[in-house]
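Re: your question from the hallway

Yes, I did run it. Sequences:
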Amino acid sequence: RKEVEQDPGPFNVPEGATVAFNCTYSNSASQSFFWYRQDCRKEPKLLMSVYSSGNEDGRFTAQLNRASQYISLLIRDSKLSDSATYLCVLMDTGRRALTFGSGTRLQVQP
Amino acid sequence: ETGVTQSPTHLIKTRGQQVTLRCSSQSGHNTVSWYQQALGQGPQFIFQYYREEENGRGNFPPRFSGLQFPNYSSELNVNALELDDSALYLCASSSGPTGDNSPLHFGNGTRLTVT
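Structure:
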């Protein structure tokens, strides 16, 4: 079983739509959680950290459920520029490494 | 502020050869991590260097090795290349070891093709 599981998509949504991605993880020792965004053939870039209480950054809302080992990302009012692959990422302090999911591809259409 | 730079951007090698990839960390950063990203997959952790010492390693064989220099730039060396080593190799720098919440800044990557 992979440490981080994501639906690969693609999610094809119209501009203005609300879309949600989920991610499950298996390592209960994971201590920090993030969403990264990766454009085609580019490097990953940090989108936002994920906190237990949930957090929001503009149109983006992230949630963490430690009991169910589940993370989500909600994007409201989708823009064409949101088209990218969204990577669910967790950090295990003991291994000093980030563990990435395989990503969920989002395509926002006009 | 200079970002993370990697060289070369693209490379084609033959199975069995050796390759060296280079990374210059962002100004003020003392930690470099290397990741391998195969097509359609997320990046996989190879290892991390902090102040010139290996500070953590993922599940990669010993033919993957690295160095960090006094100016905190780094090299990734891969010996005895295999076809499955074809991937995007990403370098990321941070102001401290992963685990102290220092965000990672990734370079553009080196795309390695092994034929």
